[in-house]
């Protein structure tokens, strides 16, 4: 019998992620999408587009806009692609980025 081929289009961000295999045990586990927390002291911080909380540790996974660099502003031949406009970051309990990747 012929196999049915199906595809779908995802229009919403993922409800969560599962990370396993890291030697950093607090990083492993389930991350659930939440609204980013509001903070008055982070006026100059990057803009968080998606925010995921770890279910059992204070770690977070974020997708954030990356600021435009001075070099890109001064050189009209350098432009940012969509992937360079944002980055994924795994943030530890101290608020430090532990891993980042272009989004």
> Helix count, per DSSP?
1
Order of helices and strands: EEEEHEE
End-to-end C-alpha gap: 41 Å
Decide which structural class fits the backbone.
mainly beta
Chain-averaged pLDDT: 83
Neighbour order of strands in the largest sheet: 1-2-3-4-5-6
Shape: extended
Rg estimate, integer Å:
17 Å
Helical percent range?
A: under 10%
Give the amount of beta strand, in percent: 25-35%
The low-confidence runs, each spanning 5 or more residues with pLDDT under 50, are none
Structural summary, described in words:
The protein is mainly beta and 103 residues long. Helix content is 5%, strand content 34%. It contains one helix and six strands, in the order E-E-E-E-H-E-E. A six-stranded antiparallel β-sheet has the order 1-2-3-4-5-6, with no helix packed on it. A hairpin with a 5-residue loop joins strand 5 (86-91) and strand 6 (97-102). The longest helix has 5 residues, at 70-74. The mean pLDDT is 83.
List keywords for this structure.
single chain, 103 residues, mainly beta, 6-stranded antiparallel sheet, 1 helix, 34% strand, extended
